[in-house]
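Obj: model holo form, ligand = flavin-adenine dinucleotide.
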Amino acid sequence: MRTSSPHIVIVGANFAGLAAATSFGPQDNVTVFDQSASFECLPNIHELVSGLKRSSDLQLSREKIIARSGHTFRQQKVAELLPEKHQVITDDGTPYIYDVCIVAVGGINNTYGIPGVNRWSLPFKSCADCAEIGRRLKNLAAGAQPFSIVIVGGGLEGIESLGEILRLCGRSQLMQVHLVNQAPRLISEAPEVIDRDIKSLCHAYPITFYNNTAVTQLKENKVSLSNGLELHTDLTIWTGGAAPSPFLYRSGLAAQSGQWASVKPTLQSQFNNTVFVAGDAAMVEPPLSKQGYHAIDMGSLVAQNCKRLLKGRAMQEFKPSGKPTLLSFGDVMTYLIAGQTVFASPALASMKEGVYHYIMALFDRPSHTSGIINLVQRSIRTTEKRILPSVTSLKTMLGFAHVRIL
Ligand SMILES: Cc1cc2nc3c(=O)[nH]c(=O)nc-3n(C[C@H](O)[C@H](O)[C@H](O)COP(=O)(O)OP(=O)(O)OC[C@H]3O[C@@H](n4cnc5c(N)ncnc54)[C@H](O)[C@@H]3O)c2cc1C
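Output (holo structure tokens):
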């Protein structure tokens, strides 16, 4: 399978992998592997819980994006990476020889090994996961019986899922929500004021928060907590964050099982110079939060470094850019977190919507006709659902003028 020009293999085609693939030109010989057909805009998957967006609003065809850059997409899982043989092997046993490999496999659902998590809770990691949560939530809300929802995790994903649950059924008299958080406060990596603000906004809703509390076991309709309580549940949402993919250790890219892949400042693997690691899978020094914008920047840089390596030129080091975080809390509030400063206003939801359109347009380039049509259709469809209900509500219109600095 060796061809005359160097063969570049990319494993994983979401934020980092696609950013890398689209940074190579048609003259480069690039093959991209991912087991699923569609790019997914993960920062917005919580919006599937309330039905604000549909899965198709958040997905793009990997085949089309990669073909447009002049490369080959193979919808296959890479089962093995053998750096010493310069080879990847797909799960059907086909070997592919590479000159340089880019690993962008992201992470997996972190269950912390707690019994019952895989069986009795729904993860929060893909469009399919969140669409299923939305489907079950709608069924519960349509019934005449009281129902209980347990969200495990008080980080960004946990709060964004809670916000969407309130958007859909915040007025329900039958719903009770429990949010279990192992950390001492909500969004523990952000300034403390957010914890206080969210809890004060939640006084109006049937929500109980359990901070400093771990889940010890999940059973059918039951969540056991470290404080001895047992919660009845009709829907358990697991937002425990991401853990390293076992693929990294298996491929010799992590020093130990359960670790992310250690990389040099050039994003080359610490253990092999012809393997680059980009996105969530990479463990840079000092450690970085696992964010889509870092993954995109890393993906672009590894493509440039890959070309430099093949031409024998000096490579560049990864310098993370500092960007603020936008945290959506349904139609109740949106927060902009910039270092220790936090801005709060429902109007900031339009900024989050802008970031979503930017990401989708980045991969579905509006420079070709179908990209422009998709961009316009996506904008109309999603703006109609998100912005119009806000501007037709007097309360929210007044809120638009009011941005609080917490
Ligand atoms: C609910 C949620 C909300 C988020 N909100 C934000 C936010 O507001 N802002 C922000 O910046 N970031 C946010 N993030 C984080 C952001 O989505 C990640 O940082 C980003 O997706 C990382 O990109 P990646 O390409 O490294 O990995 P991923 O996006 O996880 O992609 C990895 C890809 O690799 C593929 N893959 C894995 N193993 C293999 C294999 N063996 N063979 C072939 N393919 C493989 C997978 O199918 C997947 O497509 C959020 C994440 C989640 C889950």
